[in-house]
């Protein structure tokens, strides 16, 4: 190692920083530089692949941990007081004793942090030492460790192996240059994804030789976006070829169904996308914690007030002395402090003496209680889903009590309220509707499609073609429609009996195909059988690594494939449903590669379409397209599918141009199809339009050049790629439309009804059409038949302002009408995305929020993910309410993170919502018990425990404060210091913790049967913990401390008892009073409660007796030796304890008796229901719900109306909303018996 000057080191460090922070970085192969010193390595500035997630090191653990703990103001406060106690002029008791409480708390916290960090260290060590294969200059792959991987290396990954770093895919053993990966470790999605070799290497000879790689790789700065990657490969001749995320293997992914692949390391270690997304567990501050901090501040003010009284009292006492009493000892110079200075010192001494007024153990106790609450939540059998073998997950550990204070619930629709298991229901081809009535059966799964007989006959006629192929058959719109369904998607085809292997590697999760999810979503088969229809290559490479390759046989490579042998894995359930529909009509998707798609026709003939490009779906275009070359006609054909509003405006020439009056024919087909789409939407079906376009060869050549340049661009690549897609997707020919059913999840209507009865406003935010969303809204009882439904849709801001003002005026006038004082209008609002954007503008958002808060339900249609999060933030900030957002897909992540509480549903769209959430459930119905039962319990338990802690500390510390009036405010304690410490650390610490974990004010059955009980935790009806209840508890503590002090004082007045003989009964009375106060608060007694309460009393007597027996000189000059034994032999002691406890608790007990007798609270009435016989209780709840109008909920089933035609009346669907009318505005107000339309 050569010596470098400090200047050279600084220069090299700055150069490395510039290289790492540059927007673009140029990487080359490490092979020519292998063996050279680090200074000559071209990629030396980029980090290695070793990862370190630990926070501490053995040497720096103590200072760093102390530094973190001192960020908590409470710790600083108590440490400061402990240090202050070492100053002789202000110390209240032995300095060492004052350090014990804070040292115990901080040591426990340090041990917890050390254990957590040690577990992180073990995980890092295990991951860093995982094996991988790196190419060396000896022309072979050498087994090394993950931590040895460097940027610029060539890494080989084999089947079922985890990718060690972010690799640019340069070679795959698959003949089509495809590598299948599973990204479950990153986003939770178990469906396979395809990655393709970088374009410039896709046609290389078999076998990749890394030493021949003489290109430079230019890539963007590392970022955490898992869906985007900008890169280009620069050849020696300066030719540049772009690469995207489709050619990037991310660290943490697992290679599946591919023998082996070779990649070039572009990012390593902490710069990989997976590590940049590893933010650790979520941490939020709950609303109760914020309220707690305010009350701690009040206690601090109370403490300073008491200390000021003590200091002033000491000053007045010193001034009133006629001379210098003998117990005032001067300093070494014989000098006594002036009364003013002595009282100044006494202020700080009093702070030390009364410091436990601030509950030091409260924060630790809250953490312990939350751990216990989370344990019971995660182990609730009612929140377990057998189908997915999953239970509720608590990802944010410190906001459990927020579940009991929710006022607004924001929900996605697809996959959250519905199953997200799509069933093909209807289709329209060239203006003719095919209803598929048999597909409406509930027992059908997403893979089962029963063909419509009329359409099947049409397909048969088109396929026959007179017994030979002709141009009319190749251009039949019915055939093209199903070819589009089979081709225009990203479905991965594999063998149904060739499942992924399971290997025992860290970070590996279970995987399963899409069709397997119907029985068990994460099911995994451990075998890979070899059958006639599947070819499995299993061999050892030259490094002795067992690999596998799995793919369907080609047309010429083996026997004919049967449809049941195929397995379709789709990123979207919609795509899978369309592919299964095409398969039902004989258009079977057999294979998909980056360059081709193989489809078998009903006649048995197999066509291999050359894939020229795929225009992927994005949220701006709302469509996707696949450009192929027809194997028979050799035409360039663009198949497109997408939302109707994004397709209809792009229509051009009609199909084949065979009609004489082209424009009339085109309009008729579009109008017929649009009518069918509207009917589908009113049934609640998800709709898509299918189109085709024949592209001329010259147009394709010109467009292909622009597309290639866009893909190679490093600046604004996404925008340029989208522009090329929009450029080609014009003058489309409409083939038809589809309607897909997404059934409601089980018990969704019951759940929404329960949430609304619990006082929550339910909003549904969806990207669906208004007609579809409204239909689902009625089905799930978000909207009721008797509701006043306001539909808002406008095209300009002026009309939006007008309608907001008019609607608000009507609603306010209704509320101000004296005849409507005791009635509440059931108002619901339906608003589309464009109107919502205008309503959320700064000048209109106040009016929009004012209208929305008066609505029981709000349904937002055609909204984007950004609008979802914007709505949540707007409501939360403007109304100052507790919000909850629930969703299941990546488009719900922003909404989930914007809410106070985020709930993710582990559904069919992966796990991104779950990974971004605070709590994860598997079914929407689980939200009911999570909020109404566990949320209520968590909040009431913690709220009561926090109030009890404040009461306990104030009551105990006031005993010391009252004694100061009789000792000249000299900060003298009549209770031994060790017993004072033991009182809070041991004698009274465990009961409130168990109270916070186990107490149940009302049973789960009653909370679910009477959802209105949940309202006790909401802001406007908070009975448990508010400003009033806090100060009532403080005043009660003052009263009880007065009783506990002055009854013993009056009993021993004029006697000759010493200070500790007087203080021992006070300590005992305080223990009994504080524990019995808690006994009054406990609503449900269990064996654990009895053991802990009696155990605390027994522990007090045992420890105090032992301490009095052995402590001869523990606290000179006064010592508590044998005092407690003497007290227990005196009958006066028992009389004092009994009388003081009864008098202290009598007001609280009397208050509860009167309150529960005269004005019982809803919770007390709920507890009275618990005492009933279960059958009687259930009958009472049933009758009560019937009286309230919460009768049985109808199951949602789509109807089978007659086939819609142009002659069908416009109001055929009477229960749905009226059509959105006009170009500017349509406001529909719907009631049960009439419909009023206001249009401008």
TrEMBL record:
Cofactor: Mg(2+)
Domain P-type ATPase N-terminal: 43-95
UniProt keyword Ubl conjugation, yes or no: no
UniProt-annotated binding residues for ATP: 412-414, 575, 617, 641, 686, 766-768, 862, 868, 891-892
Membrane-protein topology: Multi-pass membrane protein
Enzyme Commission identifier(s): 7.6.2.1
A GO BP entry: phospholipid translocation
Subcellular location: Endomembrane system; Endoplasmic reticulum membrane; Membrane
GO cellular component: endoplasmic reticulum membrane; plasma membrane
Compositional bias of kind Polar residues: 544-557
UniProt keyword list: ATP-binding, Endoplasmic reticulum, Magnesium, Membrane, Metal-binding, Nucleotide-binding, Translocase, Transmembrane, Transmembrane helix
The species this protein was found in: Fundulus heteroclitus
Regions that span the bilayer: 74-93, 99-115, 292-317, 344-366, 945-965, 977-998, 1030-1052, 1059-1080, 1086-1112, 1133-1154
Protein name (database record): Phospholipid-transporting ATPase
Domain P-type ATPase C-terminal: 914-1160
Catalytic activity: a beta-D-glucosyl-(1<->1')-N-acylsphing-4-enine(out) + ATP + H2O = a beta-D-glucosyl-(1<->1')-N-acylsphing-4-enine(in) + ADP + phosphate + H(+); ATP + H2O + phospholipidSide 1 = ADP + phosphate + phospholipidSide 2
Keyword Transmembrane helix: yes
UniProt-annotated binding residues for Mg(2+): 412, 414, 888, 892
Recorded family membership: Belongs to the cation transport ATPase (P-type) (TC 3.A.3) family. Type IV subfamily.
CDD domains found in the cross-reference section: P-type_ATPase_APLT_Dnf-like (cd02073)
